[in-house]
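The instructor's notes for this session suggest beginning with a concrete chain rather than abstract definitions. Hand out the sequence below and ask the class to guess, before any prediction is shown, which regions might be ordered.
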Amino acid sequence: MRTPGRRALLLGLALLGVALLAAVLVRGWVSDDAFITLRAVRRVLAGQGPTWNPGDRVQVFTHPLWAALLVPAHALVGSGWWAALGLGLVTTGLFVAGIASRATTGAAVALALLLGSRSFVDFSTSGLENPLLHVLVAALVLWPRASEPRVAGLLAGAALLTRLDTAPLVLLLLAGRLARGQRLRGAGWAAALPLSWCGVSLFWFGALLPNPALAKLGAALPKAEVIAQGITWLGTSASMDPVGAVLLVAGLITCIARRELRWAGAGILAHVAWIAWAGGDFMVGRFITPALAVSAAALAGTRLRASLALPAVVAALAAAVVPGGTLRWPDSREIADAGRLIDRDGLVDERRYYTPGSALLGWRPGRSMPQHAFRTRGERAADRDVITPVAVGITGYFAPPGVFLVDRTGVTDPFLARLPARPGSRRPGHLYRDPPFGYQEWIADPTCALREVALVGLCDDVRLATRAPLLAPGRAAAVGRLLVGDVIQVLTGRRPTAE
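After discussion, reveal the predicted structure:
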């Protein structure tokens, strides 16, 4: 028989879970970066395979598993915006249910802190891979069957296939769930999925790294400057989301206090260190959410004294209702100059930037979403046009299939990604390149050639790898040269030049 205290706890968990999902729904949105993946998804559904520009095989996404899930979602609803938003809401619902199912006072604290965390709430939609990562890392911590090498390994492999650079967090979670003698087997299962994808990627795209990773990691910026950017990003994220920072610290304390969770605590620290090392991102709060999910899972498996749990829940809820909090109705006014949201370090509250044009608050029955100036720019383009937008996602998704887009950040461009960033280009994640003379003609016309002799060899290799038939003569050699150059570029920041 359930005691009154038990019934009150279960009721409180249900209310907190509903409030959290309601906040995620009301603040739901889809980012421009999500539409980069959705353009590739649309081309898959059109029978063209995951391509970007016409005939241009390039892995424009860093989340293969999430992209794969978007394919049936898009086919089902017929809209990239609804597919991305709906998939985020469904996976977030699974995560919240998993936390609440622990039925502990720690789960109540975890849900309250998640509800107060702007980073978690905002990136539980966005169209990016965060909500899927939340489910997978929480399952590694909480699911009883995750103590089996095959189950734990497949969960870890799925998380790595969702986003490879979560490896410092995911592999330490895997080590913590398995006995010492089982870790090698678990690692083997974990490696199966990402290694299989690497084989597909090398054959189809002619590259092992996703193009956005190459564009960001190989931009030839001084490492000290990159780390400084990462530390700035962490500080800005904490100031924007103090409840998330509290959740991170509470999760770390819980992991230190419980011996079986110390590997998870090490994973959280390793994840934070990786963010600093990689330089963070321009989206404030985005990269920290997997660590927040692990912290919440650690708390959910802990029984806290009611005298400690209740004040923590009340404090988190109080933080959620202050101006700007997640339980306040979000500002849906259109911003005349959205660029002013970008701070001097290039960081931005990305959800606010795309509200209301690509947010659920901007939807009305019968209205196609998103409604944004970037969409209009794409729809006005004509087949065979070559356009150079500042942001390529929404524009690219709505442009006619024959339009060529020049992405000066290199995120979607396999040639520009292999060039150094423009001097003074210091915005994390958006490092601009200067296209060489003649590049816009070259990208749309295979008969054109670049006029910069030093880049002709790289240009020819990229063309062979990404545009030639998969078994074309010379393609394998070109892919090999690009692969060696990619490794050197990421490790040293410089690409070897042809003699």
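Then share the key points. The chain has two domains: 4-321, 375-492. The CA atoms of residues 219 and 475 lie 25 Å apart.
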